[in-house]
Amino acid sequence: MSADEELAKDLGLLSAIAIGIGTMIGAGIFVLPGTAVARAGPLAALTFVIGGVTALFTALSASELGTAMPKSGGAYFYINRALGPLFGSISGWANWLGLAFASAFYMYGFGEYVNQLVGAPALGLGPVTISAAQTIGLVGAALFIAINYMGAKETGGLQIGIVLTLLAILGTFTVVGLLNADLESLRPFAPPGTTEQVLPVTAIVFISYLGFVQITSVAEEIKNPGRNLPLAVIGSVVIVTVVYALFLVVLLAAVPNEEVAGNKTAVVDAAELLFGQYGIFGFGLGTVGWGLLLLGGLLATASSANASILSSSRINFAMGREKIISPSVNEIHPRFGTPYKSILITGGLIIAFLLFGNLEILSTAGSVLHLIVYGLLNIALIVMREAEPADYDPDFEVPLYPIVPIIGTISSFALIAYIEPFVILLSAGLVVFAGAWYLLYARQRVESAGVFAGWILDRSEELPDAAVAAADTVRPDAAKTPAAGTNGGFRVMVPLSNPRTEKDLITLGGAIAKQRGGTVHAVHIVQVPDQTPLKRAGQNERIDAESQKLLEQARADAETFGAPVETHTVLSHRSFEEVFDAARTFDADQVVMGWGPTSHGRAESRIDELTHDLPCDFLMLKGRAFDPSRILLPTAGGPDSVLGADVVRLLREEFDSHVTLLHALSEDESQAEGRQFLEEWAAENELADAELIVDDRDVETAIDDAATDATLVVVGATERGLLSRVVRGSLVLDVLDDVDCSVLLAETARERSIRERLLGLEKE
Description:
Blueprint: E1 3-5, H1 13-24, H2 27-40, H3 44-68, H4 75-83, H5 85-118, E2 123-125, E3 128-130, H6 132-150, H7 156-180, H8 198-205, H9 225-254, H10 257-260, H11 266-275, E4 279-280, E5 283-284, H12 286-321, H13 340-356, H14 359-387, H15 403-416, H16 421-440, H17 451-458, H18 465-473, H19 477-480, E6 491-496, H20 499-516, E7 519-527, H21 534-537, H22 541-559, E8 565-572, H23 576-585, E9 590-594, H24 607-611, E10 617-622, E11 630-634, H25 639-655, E12 658-664, H26 671-684, E13 691-695, H27 699-706, E14 712-716, H28 722-728, H29 735-738, E15 742-747, H30 754-759
């Protein structure tokens, strides 16, 4: 079963910070100090600080984007949404391969630490010699690939435990180091020839900061995300930067630099040296210190490698969902319930990188690919701020905009220049490959053009022709074709939950999609009790069978109209709220849903907010069997009546309906004025041949009388908040509950300003 999972908000601030710290404190601090000190001397501590500050600018941008767009895929999703699928392809591939390089680096470091215990020899394979660390890393990589393939995963409590253990080990080392530190040993702080190595070394150690953006991938699971997500993202970067800097300063002040420089497990040897100066009952503690830091290195490298492999499947899922790559990559294993193809592909890359790379190449390749992503992420924030799409409403906003994202962009891209030319060339080749991949493969399949292209094309008369032509050239093929007369442009989403109402809703949605040359998206929203994990519910065969049956019937009903149909199952702890999230996820232009007594649970307190900020036009159908043969459309003007007229025209074209327009006179309106208004309105909305009725009675009486001969009443929501009253069962127009025919309520999407949201005001 294919399902977009909606998870309960059960991650607190501590858990969210643990995710960020747990993915950052990895092989970087346990393996790279030797390399950093060998090239930069005591300035190695400064390189970790510069890396942290560079990450901090991107962390601020990621925090805003994460609170505005809490979707699986994290940075890739934000870039794809803002900059379009060309840059989405570049960022997706860079993120995916960057995680593979990082995982290979972590496993190489894991091999170095295990080798401290076993002392394995190098392995010769013909003319190729594989070091002991590589051999152990390959075994470890195979183990973690198998674990992810079979679906075993860390729990939130275990992740917190690992993070606290690592911080305790590093803290213990730092305290012991402080007791033995001699700051004079740091002089000269910048030995000759080391200053020019600061930025190149920063580029190498930047891999130590990968992972903070992963917090945004679980934004929907974080309690009070508007507050806790930015605190977690920014806080984890600050904490890790301080820990790294303090650890390096103490290491270099307490241990001779020559003991650290070039040593891949320098921190273990340093711990043995430092702890060896203390003893209990005459026994030295050197072995204890050696064991503690060895345990820390094993935990950090293993945890980071596993997290990277796990994260790669999220990237693949998001790319498959957007059709940048084939969705078949995300095929779920029938037994283990994991995206096994994605894991195997990523695993193959990790093994290849381990075989042909060394620590420095693996770390710099992982760094440069993520720096590309981080630079694009900062640009994505600027685009979203300047374009102001209707659904962009972050709970947290970057301070000092646009200075912060501009510095984040420049610092991320500038740091790439200090990486060795071979890795830069390799990364440039990837960018070219990702661009070619989009142009030759994905452009024919992707449907969403992104915010930036839309912003440019909307201003085609103001902007240079070259910019407009470029934006139009790289747009997806589906986005270049007008909605009418194509199969991919206009999207009608039909949420389904009840087999008894499925046929009527699909009939209406299919007719609209056919007339607009669009696609029906039949979405079965399965509400799962809060006590049941969504992943467990996704393995329920009964739910799977019922969903497949409902969606297969929906597909058959929609295809009778000749309209393409896509089916989706969404598991959620919510029902009504999920309709709005799904409409945004599937980029719906119109939602056709049932109208009747339902239980909305946690949505109850948010109904007004949801229904006053609609992601698209909504049509709600209530009543007996759907019969559009004789349609009554009451109107008093307004955008919702226009939407109603639009729907009526489509139904008339499809079903050859007889249409009657009704206008109930206001208190100060004469019969002649009412007739003139109705005739003009009918002509403007291409319904001039409809039967016209002008009634001087109140609206309810007029509708009740005119509906006697109708089979369908279409009502535009001329009152603000009419949809919310329908949902809560407090509709003022009681006549719509009393008429004998079906009723279709039409309400257009409206965007409210920040002031209106805060004060609860309505647009005039």
